[in-house]
C-alpha cells in the first residue's frame, strides 16, 4: 500500500510539471520533492541517545533504534504514512536492514508502520495482549462495515424481522451474497506481530542484552518496556511520557494503579545515568519519572478527598488549582488535556 500511494503521488506531481520539464528531470525532482514533503509533514527527526541507540521522533510515538553489526533492532514504527520518512532518516545512520522490531503496545501511532517494516524483512514481536488488540482493531472496523452491508441487503429484500430466529436466517442469506465476516476482514500482510510473549523476553543483539518487560494494565494491558542493559537506555512506550499527562486507556485494559506500578518498575530498572526514551516527548531521566510519580500521588490524594466529600466529577474537574503546577508546565497542552486526565482518575478512584 505505501508503494502504491507513493506511485500515485509521483504521477500527480509529474502531470503538474510535465509542460516545463523533461522526463529525466521530472523523475529526479519529483522523487526528491516527495521525500522532502513527507519528511516535513511528519516532522521526522533522529537523535543519538547514547552509543548505538537512537530515537526517531516526529508525528506518532517515539521510535527507538539500536544499530550495529547484526543489523537494526527497532522499537515501534509510528503511522503507515510516516514509514518512508522513518526509513529515510534511518538510512542516514546505517545501511543495515531492520531485522527485529518490538511493538510496545497496540495503538496505531506505534504500530501503524508494521506492514511496511515487515515487507522489508523485519520480524515483529509484541506482548500477547497487544497482538490481540491489533487484530481486534481490524476486526472491529470491518465488522461495522460488514453489519451495515448485511442490514442494507436485508432492508432491500423487504424482510420483516419478527424474531431473532428470522433475523439469523436473513443474515445467513445475506452472507451468501457478501461472504462471512472472517472473509471480509482485510489485514495487511505483516501488520500483526509474528512472535508474542506473555511476560518478558530477552534478545542478544548488536553486542547488547536487550530486556523486554511486560507492564500489566498500565497504559493498556499489552504494554512492554525495552531496556538496553549495556548502553543503559530504556524505552518505555506509553507507560511513561515526558512533559504531559499520560493516556490511561481504560477501554483497552489500562488503569491508574497499573500505570503507577509501571512507573515504579522504571525506578527499579533505571539509575541516575539512564537515558529514558518515552512513548512521546523528549528524552528523560529518572528524576522526570519521579516527578510524574509525585504528581500521581498528589492528585490521587486530592481527588479521593473530594470524592469522600461527595464532590461530583464535574465539580472536581472545575478545581483548576489542583493541577495548576502541572498546567503551568504545559502538561495539559498535549494529546491528553487536563480535563480528560482528571476525569479518568475520578472514574477509577470512585469505584
Q: N-to-C SSE series?
A: HHEEEEHEHHEHHHEEEEEHEHHHH
What does the average pLDDT come to?
87
What does the radius of gyration come to? 24 Å
Number of helices: 13
Main beta sheet, described? 7 strands, mixed
Number of E-type strands? 12
Helix amount: 40-55%
Determine the oligomeric state from the structure. Answer: single chain
Beta-strand residue fraction:
15-25%
Cα shape: flat
SS-based class:
alpha/beta
Give the uncertain stretches in residue-range form: 1-39
N- and C-termini, Cα separation: 45 Å
Q: What topology, given as strand order, has the largest sheet?
A: 1-2-3-4-5-6-7
What does this structure look like?
By secondary structure, the chain is of the alpha/beta class. Among the domains are: 1-42, no CATH class; 131-184, no CATH class; 288-349. Helices cover 46% and strands 18% of the residues. It has 13 helices and 12 strands. The protein has helices at residues 2-17, 23-42, 83-90, 108-111, 114-119, 128-156, 164-178, 181-184, 256-269, 286-308, 313-317, 324-327, 338-349; strands at 45-50, 53-57, 63-67, 72-75, 98-103, 123-127, 195-197, 200-205, 208-215, 223-228, 233-237, 275-278. Strands 1-2-3-4-5-6-7 form a 7-stranded mixed β-sheet. A 5-stranded mixed β-sheet has the order 8-9-10-11-12. The chain is flat and about 70 Å long. It starts with a helix and ends with a helix. Residues 1-39 have low confidence and may be disordered. Residues 1-20 form the signal peptide. InterPro entries: Metallo-B-lactamas, NDM-1-like, RibonucZ/Hydroxyglut_hydro. Belongs to the metallo-beta-lactamase superfamily. Class-B beta-lactamase family.
